[in-house]
Write a structure and sequence with these properties.
Number of helices: 22
Oligomer: single chain
Order of helices and strands: EHHHHHHHHHHHHEHHHHHHHHHH
Shape: globular
Structural class: mainly alpha
Helix content: over 70%
Length: 507
């Protein structure tokens, strides 16, 4: 409660905190740094909004990655696409989701977290309806190959709606929690969303074969129900939208004006953190999208001997997405205690090491080594996601202290950076898929030229190291990102007068 003075000098009625149960109300009084306010009021409201945000974001991620499963089953539905075209069908949703993250972040200040969560959840009905009715339709089967590809590409692009709501959710939740608890809260919010990748890759392959005899599923070609991949999410989408509308809150404090984003865009720290997030979240989402196709084209002889894995390849990708999602809040929690920069540096160094191990797996034709290396990369990428997002509020709080600025203004800038970095980091996932696609072009052309299935397997096996150039690019990127993290946030011994360092701030 606070008392204000009107223009005549008379005290106005005290402004009271708007109870969360009042619909359509903005919360004006929000002081999470006040320990009494936090314990008596703030913690309960923040936890409720966090839970609802996690649920909505989880559905968004599930829809975003649907096409990683669909592309593996198009052949069974009677639609044949080249490897290059399949990579485009997984890359475009990634790209669209990346671009949507910027306007989605601006939507929170404009509409409020409550309303926008409901809107962004409702938009997910578009890609699921298209997947339920258009993609498996007889009309599409009758079209030419080029028409099929462009229709599928348009349908896949709408799945990008699921990737956009991450930034708005994270920016909104960042205002609810005090500085000392942001790392875990943002980590849980992001991990809950990221977990949607694992849930989709685990459940959708099973839903597609409901009603198909078990003996038939083991065959290379078998019946699938693509429409079920759209229908299964619709009740949850409706529930997420209604839950947001009835129970979430909007903070007046979160109504940052456009100047906060303009200021953030003009700050070098925004771009440094965005680049680091390319390495962490870009790796997580890029590998989540691409890994099933990479395995399919790297270990054809292994898949030929393990038909269940070949059929359930998207389900195999679930393991990495699950590990990366679960490790994200741990990265935020560890950063609250050790500092986000230290955790981020360790993650990049570890990702570089295990990328090298993945190359050994490819060269030695060891699926086990390759898969284990990538599971470790997923764990480290997830931890890095949590640590980098923990760094952003700390960096801008330190900038506010150094510059003597308004603390709320710098919080708003930090929220803007969360949205900007989220968009640019997601774009890193698109770059990973493009790198893999470019590396696969030669082997894809050779396989296409083969005349029979046995020859195709032989050609693919002879060119099984096609991914090595892409892996070298990723390894080099992790080394550069580790050096950048050290130079900007941990460097103490070098001269910091010319190139400032945040080492003393314990970011």
């Amino acid at each position: 409660m606070s008392t204000t003075i009107d223009r005549a000098g008379a005290p106005r009625a005290p402004r009271t905190f708007a109870p969360s149960g009042v619909r359509g109300r903005w919360i004006d009084h929000w002081e999470p740094e006040d320990e009494h306010f936090w314990e008596t009021t703030g913690k309960r409201i923040a936890r409720k909004n966090l839970i609802l945000s996690i649920f909505a974001e989880n559905i968004g991620f599930s829809v975003w990655v649907l096409w990683t499963i669909i592309v593996l089953n198009l052949g069974n539905a009677g639609i044949t696409m080249s490897i290059s075209e399949l990579f485009w069908l997984t890359a475009v949703p990634n790209l669209v989701g990346s671009f949507l993250r910027i306007p989605y972040t601006f939507a929170v200040p404009r509409f409020g977290g409550r309303l926008w969560t409901g809107i962004s959840a409702s938009l997910l009905l578009i890609p699921t309806l298209l997947l339920a009715f258009l993609v498996p339709s007889g009309w599409l089967l009758e079209q030419s190959h080029d028409t099929q590809f462009w229709v599928l590409l348009a349908c896949a692009a709408t799945a990008g709606f699921g990737g956009g709501n991450f930034s708005s959710s994270m920016a909104n939740i960042s205002f609810f929690y005090p500085e000392g608890k942001k790392g875990l809260a943002l980590g849980l919010n992001a991990a809950g969303g990221n977990l949607g990748v694992a849930i989709a890759q685990l459940l959708v392959p099973l839903v597609l074969i409901i009603g198909v005899p078990a003996a038939a599923v083991k065959l290379p070609q078998h019946e699938v129900h693509l429409a079920y991949a759209g229908f299964m999410w619709m009740p949850f989408i409706v529930l997420a939208a209604i839950g947001a509308w009835l129970a979430m809150d909007s903070l007046t404090q979160a109504k940052a004006d456009t100047s906060s984003y303009v200021k953030a865009l003009g700050h070098g720290q925004t771009w440094i953190m965005s680049v680091l997030y390319i390495g962490t979240f870009g790796s997580f989402i890029g590998y989540s999208f691409a890994l099933p196709l990479v395995i399919k084209n790297t270990f054809p002889e292994f898949l030929a001997q393990h038909q269940f894995i070949a059929t359930y390849l998207a389900g195999l990708g679930f393991v990495g997405a699950l590990l990366g999602s679960v490790s994200r809040p741990f990265g935020g929690w560890l950063s609250d205690r050790m500092g986000g920069a230290r955790v981020t540096l360790a993650c990049f160094l570890g990702m570089g090491v295990f990328t090298g191990l993945a190359m050994v797996g490819v060269q030695e034709r060891s699926f086990g080594v390759f898969f284990a290396a990538y599971m470790a990369i997923f764990v480290l990428a997830g931890m890095g996601n949590g640590s980098t997002y923990r760094m952003i509020p700390s960096i801008f709080a330190e900038l506010g202290r150094r510059n003597g600025g308004d603390a709320v203004d710098y919080k708003r800038r930090a929220a803007a950076v969360i949205g900007i970095a989220g968009a640019i980091g997601a774009f890193g996932g698109f770059l990973i898929q493009v790198a893999f696609r470019q590396a696969s072009l030669d082997v894809a052309a050779a396989v296409k030229a083969a005349k029979d299935p046995a020859e195709k397997v032989a050609v693919a096996a002879a060119n099984a190291d096609w991914s090595i150039p892409a892996l070298w690019v990723f390894l080099g990127a992790y080394v550069v990102l580790a050096a950048l993290t050290w130079a900007v946030y941990l460097r103490r011994t070098s001269d910091t007068s010319r190139v400032p360092s945040f080492a003393s701030a314990g970011v």
